[in-house]
Amino acid sequence: MSAFRTAFEFGSRKTLGHWFPRHMGKGLRQMRALLHKVDCVVEVHDCRIPFSGRNPLLSEALSSKPHLLVLNKVDTAAPSREDMDILERRLDNEDIFDYIFTQCSPGEGGALDQSISEIIPRCVDIINRTSRYDRECDSSLDMMIVGVPNVGKSSLINAIRRKYLHKGQIQRTVAKSPGHTRSVMFRIKVCEKPLVHLYDTPGILEPGIGDLHCGMKLALCNTVKDHLLGTAMIADYLLFTLNQKKEFGYVSHYNLKEPIDDIRKVLLHIALRDRKYKVRKVLTGTGDQIVKIPDYEYSAAIMLRDFRNGDLGRFILDNLRARH
Length: 324
Ligand SMILES: Nc1nc2c(ncn2[C@@H]2O[C@H](COP(=O)(O)OP(=O)(O)OP(=O)(O)O)[C@@H](O)[C@H]2O)c(=O)[nH]1
Ligand SMILES: [Mg+2]
Description:
- The chain is α/β, with parallel strands linked by helices and 324 residues long.
- It folds into two domains: 22-199, Rossmann fold (3-Layer(aba) Sandwich), CATH 3.40.50.300; 212-308, Conserved Hypothetical Protein Ylqf, Chain: A, domain 2.
- Helix content is 35%, strand content 14%.
- The chain is built from eleven helices and eight strands.
- Helix 5 packs across helix 6, helix 8 (231-244) packs across helix 11 and helix 10 (263-273) packs across helix 11 (296-308).
- It starts with 21 loop residues before the first helix and ends in a 16-residue tail after the last helix.
- Magnesium ion binds at residues 153-154, 180-181.
């Protein structure tokens, strides 16, 4: 195996495609309007990209309130003790002191992760450190859950509600694809003592993300729609990242002989393995001919699915020791 690429070639692409559906603009306006009613803003973000892709529009719009950063999906990042130390030092350097790592999706047998118990006490602590001016209702602590799409905002509400109200029934619907929650809904009671209400909000992405590395990582975490960058390009970025990080689990997962840096070879291998072809009509001297070509799009979608399911390794995508 020759040396791996050291840089990713984006070709002629300069920015991420524009994905700012109307519900996001409306959601941001609703969130601003609601701000005077809340005591604390809980920003949920994907733990695999602690330094990439947080939306500056959200931070600016909501900065007047106490803030907790929830780095969710810690199970998909599986940080080592050393990673955690570096991560915590870098967060401190960026003046982010109020953060927490969580897993909001149910674990084995539907059990809640222990981290769910820490969220409300941390919020209460942050609120108590700040004077509660500028709000209307005094009897309840109200918190707004914000973040980019698909990071687990609705899942967090469900988990806290299950923890304190012992409600098995799901209050907020969750989905595997981004852009599921579309409007700021009414207050959802999640806890009696102290009385706490949460507002779920739609995931809001920064329009026109300029940094393509950041865009790719957001795409790998399934926070933007795949078609904005194209599944094949995202799969190539995935392969590049796996090789850079020496995460070679894909070699045995796909039954390859050795690590490969050429995405076409991996996509071809998967398409042939699964016998997935596209039928094309080609014009020849003797008339039209039907040819079968390997379905690369299918293979790219399989790679993304496998990564998102944690089958190709669990790790932090951001380079903790550098800028990205
Ligand atoms: N592995 C893992 N998956 C999670 C976790 N939390 C949520 N998910 C999954 O992430 C996906 C998105 O969850 P949602 O709660 O709908 O995310 P959201 O932020 O409300 O998404 P939008 O409403 O689209 O902005 C779902 O498939 C969840 O099951 C977690 O801690 N670990
Ligand atoms: Mg949601």
